[in-house]
Design goal:
The complex is a heterodimer of chains A (267) and B (270). With 267 residues, chain A is an alpha+beta fold. Among the domains of chain A are: 104 residues, no CATH class; 81 residues, Alpha-Beta Plaits, CATH 3.30.70. In chain A, 30% of the residues lie in helices and 10% in strands. Chain A contains ten helices and six strands. In chain A, the strands form three sheets. Chain A has a two-stranded antiparallel sheet. Chain B has 270 residues and is mostly helical. Chain B has two domains: 195 residues, no CATH class; 58 residues, Alpha-Beta Plaits, CATH 3.30.70.20. Chain B has 13 helices and six strands. In chain B, the strands form two sheets. Chain B has a three-stranded antiparallel β-sheet. In chain B, strands 5-4-6 form a three-stranded antiparallel β-sheet. Classes of the chains: A alpha+beta (267), B mainly alpha (270). Chains A and B meet through helix 1, helix 2 and helix 3 of A and strand 2, helix 2, helix 3, helix 6 and helix 7 of B.
């Protein structure tokens, strides 16, 4: 092979590499954009023990084993066209809620770790009691007080009676019905510390469109910043330890005109 | 009536592909324990884990760890196909192979396949798709190919309900029918490419006998991965390319008995 030919071979090789690399980059960018739009579906309710959504989307291989072992056929696998991340499992609580099986077959059978049994087990190291479905955090039940008929003053406790964690996750609060002046209001209230998000309340709700429904906890809950402390709660009050009594905030502006007279004792 | 010999492996392959799918369906609908899950991840008899090793690779590329069980499952598959069965996943297991084969057959039937014309797409495309899948997995944080794979769409569709998944399957069919012969399976599919890479040294191989060969070239005509048969009519040797899917069509096509299944190590008997 002559030197000329060798050069031309090398040039052809480089050309084809650059072309392929270019095509792969174009395809890859379109692919990335497509997936980026697809993977966001914040209102999806995952099986018990699901790791945080982003991690879940990466770890779930869409095998459907959790769906297959669900004795109530409550879990379904998202099909293309379901407007959910394709092939991943989710609940539709209104139709078929989670029955909170004690042996949690969906979580236990997950082969990839997308459903993590440690998230639905009692912590306590070796010899710990093991699975505890009450630790599940599928979502959080939220009540629309404007459409819930119990809040209108009509007697209904369907969600309260259906709740598997009755009197902890849902309680009924009695208040005087100011409108009639002689009746009680029996209003359901959800407590996030105990609600597993199983969806039985949403399933049984008597209103046309459920007035109590499960949302992912990230959507349903707020979060106070560290500076607010419940002084009446000893455990929370303990957080105040180590925080200096006086804090000095220096901003570019306060440096120029330190008019902190409001906080001066002689004011 | 063609002799059964001419369709022996085809019939066996279809039997294998259909039974695997039916066992998965029975696993979901009837709760059979023989085979549960789907081709991404499954469990046989509640004991043996099997995981798509390319899916695991993508999850790792996305920056996440998988459970030991999934890794063990991937190892089972890599060992089985990598040391023994070759790239037979594509022709004996994958349900999309039936769609692709139908397109290929129809293409010939209606005269869309002028033979001898070089393919307009490089066979190496699939390796670029592998690299791209891993890069996209890294960029998006999810296993990229698993989200768009027509194999998964069909496989999951059969087991759990098709939804709109048929569009992608039809797209593969039409692509193979009108555009590129064996277009998806032989050029684009990164899973097929992945199996090609890991099965270079597997045991079960097609073997060619130069002495018996009559140079009719029927094997090359029927082969979905023609580039793996450069030895035909030249030397007696085993087909060692990982791109051979061990489908056995060349054995069926050969009237002279110059092709047969064998072990890569043994000598080719005349």
């Amino acid at each position: 092979m002559g030197n000329e030919e060798k050069m031309s071979d090398r040039r052809n090789f480089l050309h084809s590499m650059v072309r392929s690399l270019g095509a792969a980059t174009v395809g890859g960018l379109a692919w990335t954009g497509f997936l980026d739009g697809k993977k966001v579906y914040a209102t999806i309710l995952r099986p018990p023990g699901a790791v945080p959504e982003r991690e879940f989307l990466a770890k779930c291989t869409k095998c459907g084993l959790c769906v297959e072992v669900c004795p109530f056929k409550a879990l379904v696998l998202a099909k293309p066209g379901d407007e959910r991340p394709v092939g991943t499992p989710y609940f539709r609580m209104r139709e078929n809620p989670c029955r909170m099986c004690g042996d949690i077959p969906c979580t236990v059978n997950c082969p990839t770790g997308a459903l993590d049994r440690s998230l639905v087990s009692d912590s306590g190291g070796p010899g710990s009691p093991g699975l505890n479905i009450n630790r599940a955090k599928i979502g959080l039940a939220v009540i629309d007080r404007e459409t819930c008929i119990a809040y209108w003053g009509i007697q209904c406790d369907a969600c309260y009676r259906a709740c598997p964690v009755i009197d902890k996750a849902i309680t009924v609060e009695y208040t005087r019905n100011e409108r009639t002046g002689k009746h009680a209001m029996l209003a359901p209230v959800v407590h996030s510390g105990h609600c597993t998000g199983c969806g039985l309340c949403e399933h049984v709700c008597v209103t046309k469109k459920a007035s109590i429904f499960v949302l992912p906890r990230e959507l349903a809950m707020g979060e106070p910043s560290d500076r607010y402390i419940r002084g009446w709660d000893d455990a929370d009050e303990a957080r105040i330890q180590g925080i200096p009594d006086e804090t000095e905030t220096v901003t570019p502006r306060s440096e120029k005109s330190p008019l902190d007279y409001l906080n001066k004792e002689d004011f | 009536m063609p002799a059964f010999r001419e369709y022996k492996f085809l019939a066996l392959r279809r039997f294998s592909q259909v039974s695997i799918m039916l066992l998965f369906v029975a696993g979901n609908l009837l709760g059979w324990h023989l085979l549960r899950g789907n081709l991404s991840t499954s469990k046989a008899l509640n004991i043996l884990p099997m995981t798509d090793p390319f899916a695991v690779l993508q999850v790792l590329a996305s920056g996440h760890l998988v459970s030991g069980e999934a890794l063990a499952g991937a190892l089972v598959i890599v060992l089985f196909f990598g040391t023994i069965a070759g790239r037979s996943f594509c022709s004996w297991v994958c349900p999309l192979n039936m769609v692709a084969d139908l397109a290929c057959w129809l293409r010939k039937k209606i005269g869309l396949a002028p033979s001898g014309k070089p393919s307009m797409m490089s066979r190496k495309t699939r390796y670029w798709v592998i690299v791209t899948s891993l890069a996209v997995s890294l960029a998006t944080g999810v296993a990229a190919f698993e989200w768009v794979s027509p194999i998964s769409m069909l496989d999951r569709g059969i087991i759990f309900g098709m939804g709109m998944g048929w569009t992608l399957v039809l797209a593969v069919f039409l692509f193979d029918l009108f555009w590129v012969r064996n277009g998806f399976c032989g050029h684009i599919c990164p899973l097929g490419g992945f199996y090609s890479l890991i099965t270079r040294f597997s045991l079960i191989r097609i073997k060619h006998s130069r002495e018996k060969c009559t140079l009719c070239m029927k094997c090359l005509e029927i082969c979905p991965e023609k580039q793996v048969l450069p030895m035909v009519g030249k030397t007696s040797t085993a087909v060692t390319s990982g791109e051979c899917t061990n489908c056995g069509r060349c054995i069926e096509a050969c009237d002279a008995g110059a092709m047969k299944f064998g072990m890569r190590t043994g000598t080719v008997k005349p």
